[in-house]
Amino acid sequence: MIPESPGxxxxxxxxxxxxxxxxxxxxxxxxxxxxxxxxxxxxxxxAFSKGRLVDRAAEAAGPSLDRPAVGVxxxxxxxxEPLRIGEIADRMQVVGPHVTRQVQALEKRxxxxxxxxxxxxxxSLIEPTETGDEAARRYVASLLGWFADVxxxxxxxDRDDLLRLLARFADDVTDRLALPEAGxxxxxxxxx
Length: 192
Description:
Strand content: 5-15%
Number of helices: 7
């Protein structure tokens, strides 16, 4: 047996996958810049969870409405028009069967109803009933009221900057998450 020279790395076993290189930060951003944001994002997420902000808003929406049910109602409220199940799912960024179950439960509670799609007789659209619309509005009012209290003391320019940058950040994160990652094809049986 011949020992390897100290300067040569030991070859990797053939069955071990090659490690993917870490993505490079965007020009002008150092790893330290990005690392400084992480504790703030974690703290913010924890504050929302521990403060039960969304749960409180769901409670304000109506008796025993859970987050997914309220999500359907808010998607319909935001659209301002009846939507197909697939459109609701896209807006909520969930799969269609999840929305179908929620819509069926909301129909039983008379918070939404199906109407004929005027462009396709085979399809139906979902619209909130008056009660469902009121529940969605109470939910949104509760959330917006909470944020208005937090931001009420901020100067107008700071609020405008936050809203502009937060919208941009949310759009960019959503777009990035929608991109197929290298090697994703075939993992769940679907390609990009």
